[in-house]
Amino acid sequence: MFSSEGLGDPETGFSHSTVPDPGSGVSVPEIIRKKRDGEKLKEEEIRAFVRGVTKGTLKDGQIGAMLMAIRLQGMGAEETLALTREMAASGRVLEWPEKWRGLLVDKHSTGGVGDKVSLPLAPALAACGCKVPMISGRGLGHTGGTLDKLESVPGFKVSQSPEKMEEILETVGCCIVEQSQELVPADKALYALRDVTATVDSLPLITGSILSKKAAENISALVLDVKFGSAALYPTLESAQELAESLVSVGTQLGISSVAVLSRMDEPVGRRVGHSLEVLEALECLEGGGPADLRELVTTLGGTLLWQCGRVASVPEGAARVAHALDDGSALRTFQAMLQAQGVEAATARALCVGSEDERFQMLGRARTQEELLAPKDGTVQQILALPVAQVLHRLGAGRTREGQAINHHVGAEVLTSVGQPLRKGSPWLRIHHGSPKLSDGDRSALQAALILGDPFPPRSKVAKTIFPQTPLKEAGSMGRPERPEQEQNLGAPSHRPADSKPVGPGRDFP
């Protein structure tokens, strides 16, 4: 990734790359040694490392060694904060009109199967008066990406300049775009090497990657959907909670009102998985319908953000406001306006947002084969495992194994039953959309293993726990930005905090 030209002695490469920033006097091998041996890094050492990464003066081997040292030894809270702050400062920080102060919000999900929450959430929040400059990503591995879903809509452009983003936010209230080359270049460089050095799951590196981008967005409030379960990055609630606490603590100290919602990811979100199919289900949600678990996530996350930025007095009140925006059509109208603002022809946007499902399929297209799987025996649906479904869809062309790989937007799955519903042997329970003449025996077997039948089992809420910050924003670092208005600083909110929520403070060390 980084050129070795101009790095000095070709035998050692240390004459220039030992000191990443001229005049800093910091030795990169010494920084690596300190972290390798479990010592705490100083802020200037972290700054020197990040600047060396950004400027391309370090070798891949040095960066990889540092990443592995962080992965094995961890970072304390102060180190993680410094890393995140320096990564955010490595590129451009977006600037917004002063009149939007306190209204700029965003959401981040750690990734899941069928997770189309951003599509209805962004316009619903905009319909409630927020400004939502949502910078999203693409799918890699078995999880889908928001940008891939939106690119299944003909004409939708995910690449927008900061100036165009401001124009869309002024007229529509929300946009969903890709990360520009100007934002957080250090993250791009580090993420590419994390992927090939087995350090993707490092808690401080995840924290820095997520929050540096959000800090560069210059937002007021952030809600984090941290997923756990068999189809998530973190399999257990306990491991996901550790990440959630790190994100909330560091985000708060960066001057961003941050709350994390821990949600289950053993089963798909909703009943449709796959890019264009998830757009269809998002439209159902925007019409006030759709699956209950999708609506629960949209209203919970949206209600939390409305409370964070001071537009409502409690999270339940915020959830009700978001639900009303879904039910009265204002969120759907905002989504239609966003589609047009980001390149979709007016007739296409109108057909998607007010047309029948057949008309929507005409706009989005459909896979040439729809194949149903039948229940192997009588029983009650206990669970439908997300991971096997996602893995099969990935093999059929819905996912990518490398960055930039083309995908098939029409490949997907429709779940035709739900948890707690009785099934008779031979009844269809899953419909697969794909481009092959028929599914292979191996794929059929893998999909059938996703259906768990047994005794009646009550469905559970997707939301398991909420993590709130303990330290008010006025006591936290803010990257030099002004303090939030007084109503945004009331982050304790004991009067309406759920019983299973947990406050965190900024002083904890995260291994």
UniProtKB/TrEMBL annotation:
Top-level EC class as recorded in UniProt: transferase
Annotated keywords: Glycosyltransferase, Transferase
Pathway: Pyrimidine metabolism; dTMP biosynthesis via salvage pathway; dTMP from thymine: step 1/2
Keyword field contains Acyltransferase: no
InterPro entries in UniProt: Glycosyl_Trfase_fam3 (IPR000312), Glycosyl_Trfase_fam3_N_dom (IPR017459), Glycosyl_Trfase_fam3_N_dom_sf (IPR036320), Nuc_phospho_transferase (IPR035902), PYNP-like_C_sf (IPR036566), PYNP_C (IPR013102), Pyrmidine_PPas_bac/euk (IPR018090), Pyrmidine_PPase_CS (IPR017872)
EC number annotated for this UniProt entry: 2.4.2.4
Record-linked Pfam families: Glycos_trans_3N, Glycos_transf_3, PYNP_C
SUPFAM superfamilies reported for this sequence: Nucleoside phosphorylase/phosphoribosyltransferase catalytic domain, Nucleoside phosphorylase/phosphoribosyltransferase N-terminal domain, Pyrimidine nucleoside phosphorylase C-terminal domain
Region listing for Disordered, in residue ranges: 1-33, 460-511
Family: Belongs to the thymidine/pyrimidine-nucleoside phosphorylase family.
Record-given protein name: Thymidine phosphorylase
Native organism: Gekko japonicus (Schlegel's Japanese gecko)
Gene: TYMP
